[in-house]
């Protein structure tokens, strides 16, 4: 047997923190092959009521090196580890929580910027503003009306308002992160933020930490600072604009990104900002151009991400940062993390392993693909699941997954057309 492969009987179940936590068994062979990168070095083997964690060192946030390779063979489970990594078995435990506790002991929580704001949050509302097709679903005045209605119902205080499409049609004009005239301009945006603060709510605009819209013309000869990678308009689950991934530690890019980000966060004294795709591991993704190649000024994407996060919190030490991709290498700066989106394959396979690994260090809320309870105008969503099963069913699946993950109660509203629908209101008012 190879030194970096461990074998376990087929009757065992394997808990993996991939996809925000899944439990796989021997009857899921095809699904097991889809398991991707892991946010930290832990898998747990469940064997007839007992649990044993396995960690490994070093854990490197780089494509192909972040995960234990779980394979189902004829004679049992094979769990392989990256080349050069040394696996270590934790003591056996009576519960999954006890097994994960050994990992937590090796990975103590650190002080996190923005925690005071995070601790105030009780619920979250997704409100899509400027859609990817150019339509405007909501503007800043609509957000104010929602805040006033929620305040009348005792729900504004402690509400996080997540606003994709707040500065331009979603995923365009990046990184010109500034209020859009079409949505109410700087004055309307400022009134919205001021109202939210007066009511105890928190506005969280959606940014992309690495993406550039080449059609924007914001950066002359942009290819000079390009990684050579991006997200194709044809490569996603739903229609979207192409995103070019930039070398975010290049001086020209830093100057451009910071000029917009710093002005908006500083001028409006934002309490929270969401950095889409932050947490991606380094390296070229096996599924195409989506993550990017290791082509950076001072190392790789992980080092460049650390530089960005340190720079942001050096200027705005109390700013709460949210991010899309859970990873050990960002959570000391990014304690609010989107859970993985739901697919047909993931339904019914939940494990609390990721929640247990990061409890007290991270709070979860749903992915941008969160389904509304009603027909809705989305900036970007996994439409096939909604089309095939209907919004109410997919809404219920997301809400159940959210509860299992211990995540912030969250809903998406098409407020301008449908108000606060009864199913969403029940989520927002639940104790």
Strands, helices and their partners?
Elements: E1 5-8, E2 13-16, E3 22-24, H1 29-32, E4 43-47, E5 50-57, E6 69-73, E7 76-80, E8 86-93, H2 96-106, H3 115-120, E9 123-127, H4 140-152, E10 159-163, H5 185-198, E11 202-208, E12 211-212, E13 226-231, E14 243-246, H6 251-267, E15 272-276, H7 301-315, E16 320-323, E17 336-338, H8 353-358, E18 363-365, H9 383-389, H10 391-405, E19 410-413, H11 415-418, H12 422-429
Parallel strand pairs: 9-10, 9-19, 10-11, 11-15, 15-16, 16-17, 17-18
Antiparallel strand pairs: 1-7, 2-3, 2-4, 4-5, 5-8, 6-7, 12-14, 13-14
Helix pairs in contact: 4-5, 9-10
Question: What descriptors fit this protein?
Answer:
alpha/beta; 2 domains; 5-stranded antiparallel β-sheet; 21% strand
Description of the molecule:
It is a single chain. The chain has 431 residues and is of the alpha/beta class. The chain folds into 2 domains: 5-106, no CATH class; 115-429, Glycosidases (TIM Barrel), CATH 3.20.20. Helices cover 28% and strands 21% of the residues. The chain contains 12 helices and 19 strands. It has helices spanning 29-32, 96-106, 115-120, 140-152, 185-198, 251-267, 301-315, 353-358, 383-389, 391-405, 415-418, 422-429; strands at 5-8, 13-16, 22-24, 43-47, 50-57, 69-73, 76-80, 86-93, 123-127, 159-163, 202-208, 211-212, 226-231, 243-246, 272-276, 320-323, 336-338, 363-365, 410-413. The strands form 4 sheets. An 8-stranded parallel beta sheet has the order 18-17-16-15-11-10-9-19. α8 (353-358) links the parallel β17 and β18. α4 packs parallel to α5 and α9 (383-389) crosses α10 (391-405). The model is unreliable at 287-292 (pLDDT under 50).
């Amino acid at each position: 047997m190879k030194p970096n492969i461990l074998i376990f009987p087929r009757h065992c179940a394997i808990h993996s923190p991939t996809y925000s936590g899944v439990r796989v068994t021997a009857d899921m062979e095809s699904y097991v092959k889809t398991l991707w990168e892991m946010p930290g070095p832990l898998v747990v083997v469940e064997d007839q009521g007992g649990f044993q964690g396995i960690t490994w060192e070093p854990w490197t946030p780089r494509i192909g090196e972040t995960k234990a390779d779980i394979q189902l063979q004829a004679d049992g489970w094979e769990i392989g580890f990256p080349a050069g990594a040394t696996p270590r078995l934790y003591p056996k435990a009576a519960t999954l929580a006890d097994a994960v506790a050994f990992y937590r002991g090796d990975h103590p929580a650190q002080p996190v910027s923005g925690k005071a704001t995070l601790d105030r949050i009780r619920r979250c509302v997704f409100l899509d503003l400027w859609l990817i097709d150019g339509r405007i679903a909501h503007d800043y005045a609509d957000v104010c009306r929602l805040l006033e209605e929620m305040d009348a119902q005792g729900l504004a205080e402690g509400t996080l308002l997540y606003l994709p499409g707040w500065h331009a049609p979603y995923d365009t004009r990046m990184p010109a992160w500034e209020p859009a005239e079409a949505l109410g301009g700087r004055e309307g945006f400022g009134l919205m933020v001021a109202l939210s603060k007066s009511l105890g709510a928190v506005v969280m605009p959606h940014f992309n930490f690495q993406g550039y819209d080449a059609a924007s013309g914001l950066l002359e000869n942009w290819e000079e600072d390009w990684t050579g990678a991006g997200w194709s308009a044809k490569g996603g689950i739903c229609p979207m604009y192409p995103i070019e991934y930039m070398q975010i530690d290049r001086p020209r890019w830093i100057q451009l990104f910071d000029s917009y980000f710093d002005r908006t966060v500083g001028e409006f004294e934002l309490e929270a900002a969401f950095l889409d795709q932050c947490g991606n591991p380094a390296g070229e993704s096996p599924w195409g151009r989506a993550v990017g190649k290791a082509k950076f000024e001072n190392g790789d994407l992980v080092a460049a991400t650390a530089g960005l996060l340190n720079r942001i919190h050096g200027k705005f030490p109390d700013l709460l940062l949210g991010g899309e991709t859970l990873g050990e290498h960002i959570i000391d700066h990014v304690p609010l993390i989107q859970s993985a989106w739901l697919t047909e394959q993931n339904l019914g396979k939940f494990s609390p392993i990721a929640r247990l690994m990061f409890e007290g260090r991270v709070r979860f809320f749903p992915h941008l693909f969160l389904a509304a309870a009603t027909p809705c105008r989305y900036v970007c969503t996994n439409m096939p699941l909604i089309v095939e099963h209907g919004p109410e069913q997919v809404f219920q699946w997301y809400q159940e997954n959210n509860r299992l993950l211990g995540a912030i109660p969250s809903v998406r509203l098409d407020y301008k057309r449908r108000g606060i629908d009864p199913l969403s209101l029940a989520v927002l008012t639940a104790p």
